[in-house]
């Protein structure tokens, strides 16, 4: 019986770990469910921001907290942990539906989101979570489900974390899973844009345009620090594809461009899988280059 109980416990844990840990019950009100519950409101300056993981969200959450009047944040304090543990009126999660709806359709409000090329985003999260910080305990909530599935084991050992998984294994896991149930760090961005009528859209390469638009909207110059900057080299054409290289052999991972992690097969499969994200990113990039403003026009909406 003890063997059966152990096997049952392992199966239950494996099923629990299969998807990201915080899936909200279907009965939860829409503004209290992911991703809408993490949207931020800065009442004093009439701005709503929809965070998307790995899209400069640390910098932008910090900015929104400041614009919204949050004074509890101490120097060096993690903004994600602060917002997750404190009850403030900065998040949709803690606001009434009436409050939110009024702000979603008020023409005086700026409502924005920042997009990133999906392959660049995947490489960034792989390097951060599965290479650089794979031995850090706090990373487990994000990486463990992928590692369990990829390695085909019930439990992860210290040796498993030391070995890690390749970028190809990470990508293959994403391609096998239901996109709507993926971890927010690599869930398609297009699935996180519903229900908010955005007035402005930006990309991670056009944060200077966002700053300029915010300066005008707020009526004063704002400080937009860019935390967790990408650390890619400008060129690594001499380096062979590292898609099948284990993390323990990727000492230079933070200096490699996204192209170094892709062969033709991976590039084609990921491009198909994230086609909607790529389309939105390309449209936003062209619009920003042409207009030097993130304001959504009729042409961009179409």
Automatic annotation (TrEMBL):
Membrane-topology descriptor: Single-pass type II membrane protein
Domain of life: Bacteria
MF terms (GO), sorted A to Z: sulfotransferase activity
Subcellular location: Golgi apparatus membrane
Pfam families for the chain: Sulfotransfer_2 (PF03567)
Protein's UniProt keywords contain Transmembrane helix: yes
An example Gene Ontology biological process: carbohydrate biosynthetic process
Keywords (A to Z) from UniProt: Glycoprotein, Golgi apparatus, Membrane, Transferase, Transmembrane, Transmembrane helix
GO cellular component, one term: membrane
Protein name: Sulfotransferase family protein
Phylogenetic classification of the source organism: Bacteria, Pseudomonadati, Pseudomonadota, Alphaproteobacteria, Rhodobacterales
């Amino acid at each position: 019986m003890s063997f059966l109980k152990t096997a049952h416990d392992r199966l239950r844990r494996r099923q629990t770990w299969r998807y990201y840990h915080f899936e909200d019950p279907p009965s939860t009100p829409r503004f209290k469910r992911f991703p809408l519950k993490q949207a931020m409101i800065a009442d004093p300056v009439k701005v709503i921001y929809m965070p998307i993981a790995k899209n400069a969200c640390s910098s932008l959450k910090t900015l929104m907290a400041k614009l919204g009047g949050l004074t509890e944040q101490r120097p060096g304090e993690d903004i994600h942990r602060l917002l997750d543990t404190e009850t403030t009126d900065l998040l949709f999660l803690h606001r009434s539906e009436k409050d939110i709806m009024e702000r979603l359709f008020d023409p005086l409000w700026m409502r924005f989101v920042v997009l990133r090329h999906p392959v660049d985003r995947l490489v960034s999260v792989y390097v951060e979570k599965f290479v650089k910080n794979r031995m850090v305990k706090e990373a487990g909530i994000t990486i463990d489900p992928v590692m369990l599935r990829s390695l085909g084991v019930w439990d992860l050992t210290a040796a498993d974390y030391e070995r890690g998984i390749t970028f190809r294994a990470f990508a293959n896991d994403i391609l096998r899973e239901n996109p709507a149930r993926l971890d927010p760090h690599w869930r398609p961005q297009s699935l996180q844009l519903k229900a908010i009528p955005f007035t402005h859209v930006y990309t991670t390469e056009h944060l200077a345009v966002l700053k300029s638009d915010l300066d005008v909207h707020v009526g004063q110059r704002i400080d937009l620090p860019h935390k967790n900057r990408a650390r890619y080299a400008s060129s690594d054409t001499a380096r062979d594809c590292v898609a099948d290289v284990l993390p323990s052999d990727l000492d230079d991972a933070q200096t490699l461009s996204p192209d170094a992690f892709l062969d033709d097969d991976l590039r084609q499969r990921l491009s198909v899988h994230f086609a909607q994200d790529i389309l939105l990113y390309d449209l936003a990039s062209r619009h920003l280059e042409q207009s030097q403003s993130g304001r959504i026009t009729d042409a961009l909406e179409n």
